[in-house]
Design a protein that fits this description.
The complex is a heterodimer of chains A (638) and B (152). By secondary structure, chain A is an alpha/beta fold. Chain A folds into four domains: 3-43 and 188-227; 50-184, PAS domain (Beta-Lactamase), CATH 3.30.450; 238-394, 2-Layer Sandwich (Alpha-Beta Plaits), CATH 3.30.70.270; 400-635, TIM Barrel. Helices cover 47% and strands 20% of the residues of chain A. Chain A contains 23 helices and 22 strands. In chain A, the strands form four sheets. In chain A, strands 14-15-17-18-19-20-21-22 form an eight-stranded mixed barrel. Chain A has a six-stranded antiparallel sheet with strand order 3-2-1-6-5-4, with helices on both faces. A five-stranded mixed sheet of chain A has the order 8-9-7-12-13, with helices on both faces. In chain A, helix 10 packs antiparallel against helix 11, helix 13 (400-408) packs parallel to helix 15 (457-476) and helix 15 packs parallel to helix 16. Chain B is of the alpha/beta class and 152 residues long. Chain B has one domain: Rossmann fold (3-Layer(aba) Sandwich). Chain B has a six-stranded mixed sheet with strand order 1-2-3-4-5-6. Classes of the chains: A alpha/beta (638), B alpha/beta (152).
Chain lengths: 638, 152
Amino acid sequence: MTLRSLWHKSPFYFFIPTLLIAFVLLLLLSYTIKLEEQIGRKLFTISTSDLFSITQNCASQVENLLHSQQDYVEALKNDVTLQRRVESYLKTLLTPNIKYAYLVYKDDRGIFRFLSDASNKEDKAMINQKLDIESPEWFRIYEEKRPVIIHHTLLHQLSLTYLLPIQYDHQVQLVLAIDFSVQKIEEVNYVLTILKRGIIGIMVIIGVILFFLILQAIRLKDIRKNSFIDKLTGVYNRNYLQHYQDLIPLDDYIIAALDIDYFKKINDTYGHDSGDQVLTQIAQTLLTSTREKEDIVIRYGGEEFLILARMQKNDPSTPLNIIEKLFSTIQNTRFVLPSNESIQLSVSIGVNLVPQKSRTFQEAFKLADVALYNAKSKGRNTIEIYDESGHKDQRGHLSLAEIKAAIEEDRLTCYYQKIIDVETAQISHYEALLRLFDHENCIVTPDKILPSIQGTFLLRNITQKVLGVCYQQLRLHPKLCINVNLNPQDIIDETILSLLKTYAQDPLIAKRLGLELVETEDLVRKEKAKENLSMLKRLGYQIFIDDFGSGYSNFIYLAELKPDFIKIDGSIIQKILTDTISFLLVKNIVTFAKEAGIQVIAEYVSDEGICEQIRDLGIRYAQGFFFSRPEPASSLCD
Amino acid sequence: MKHVIIISLLAIFTYADNYTFLVKPYQKEIELEAKIIAEIAASSLNEPLRLFIPEMSKLEKSVYAQYATLSATCEDANFIFINKNIDANSICHAKNTLYFTNNYRKLLSDERYFGAFFWNKSRPNIVFIQRRLQAHRIHLPSSFEQFIESIE
């Protein structure tokens, strides 16, 4: 699923870390502010603990000095000696942290003026010089007649002005002012600065880490997105499905498996570039026919797509309408090839409308796959809905995904059934039969494997695998002859032909490897197929026509193909004792074969009566449970 | 996302001088001084202000230019603010020009100055001498009343 779906599934995965980080940062910030306030308060208390008493003492001294005077202001203005003594008192207050100490009064206009100033010559104010005050707090001392502390909050350093009233007859006559700064407590300031810088540093580091985490998350999202996109078609790929399949809410979607009909023919006829272009156009058609934010399109195999159409509440038909729409859109579209030719295509679609009834996505997908198989069985170019009641017998079929997995995990093998020379009772050949081990290590037979992979590249892969297995057995047992079943498509497949040519370089292999083919219209009508068969015969391979007498059988074409053996279909042999037509059919085939120089093998010989009958008819070779069942490679003997 | 980050960074850098003086030199004091001088000069003159400050630094120029029209020479100016330890006589002899100082003692000693703006006990102080205001026929608004001193 997309991150969007993950978000739907578990938003807390995103919320909790974000909230936690935000909470920690807020906590840190509030702690810093509180700490700063606390240290500021503490600093103020420590710094001013003795300041007030010393200043108070100085004010008392000045008051005592002026006590005999009625008008302190005039006395000071007029008496230089008095001025010097007051200044000397004020100077005792000056320290590195008390920068200014001065005596002022308020005139009739409400303007403060200096009477004495302990500052050095450059800063010293003159007597009666005006002092512009910055705060109306200064006037409060005349009303309250008590010391006033004015904090200078705007300044960077912790500083204050301390005002003390000097009274005469309960009237404030003078104001002793000191400007105090705590900058002198450098050690405390230093520690505080380090602490603040440390906290800011941590916050910066957290911020940087967070920034890089976000950056990495974005990059990871991009990388993941790229790894989940099929480069050819631009839709999601198999990785995406594997990664998110457990997160797909089965209640929310219907699952449709789509297969392009006869896609292999496009590749074979027009080339792989055309095949790729068709795939791209199909994918684009799927994307435009589905809802961008609701539905998901995945290419999970060569020409196989999976569509997850989201169900709307109270309207379960909508997603099926979408599938029908895309089906008809594909039917009505002409797909342009690189050569500017255009072709029409059809698709087969299997739909599972009830994925929620399955325990896992894989199970739900398998049911869509079963429906797809049915669509193919019914002649393709159709939509087949999975019907639980009507498909119980299909439950044993493997899905394409399971077969692919089995090939990749090397769980394919061959069992071997004897073909007996009835005249000598000796083993003439073995027929290699495909077997697959499922995840429970149970054997799965071809009837559960082959139907769903007809027309797909998987069939060729399986032939390749079987040929490889048999080749190894032939090398291990130099006297054995083994037959391999080929599909009509294999005869025109370059990969298979190339493999057979390679094996034929060892003449001892080619003459012992029989190629069994079912006689079909394709096989006999295609010149290429006939040419390839002739070529294989020249290389030394023996050609066996399988299931002769059933389906498409034509004596004339049989003469054209010139096989070495024909294997009469088991369904005819089984009835040879009871059905006159079957008996006559076999008798005529044998007569024709003898005249054409073709050896005959009877299949499905299940008892002694049938064995006797075929011997009487002159059939030399026989195969069936009467002689042996298919057995693993360990039973092979030269 | 990229655009949001770029726009945020641009906005932060544009207003960086509001948060730190690492980007530009600290200029708050000069700003305050420039505002006050521009206000005083504008209130003192009956014509558009042409301010001259001798030996102006780059920072002063950039700050003062925001609040007043600066004059390159003393002769072209109608308001001269001497904020450095410079002898006013050595600068110019324009007669119909208003002189302002940043030194209280200079104000008292030199008749040419009609007022001063200076820092006293880390506080900004403004003083006008009433007699000199009258001599220059300067009528300040009532908001300046508290700064006028009748010093003889």
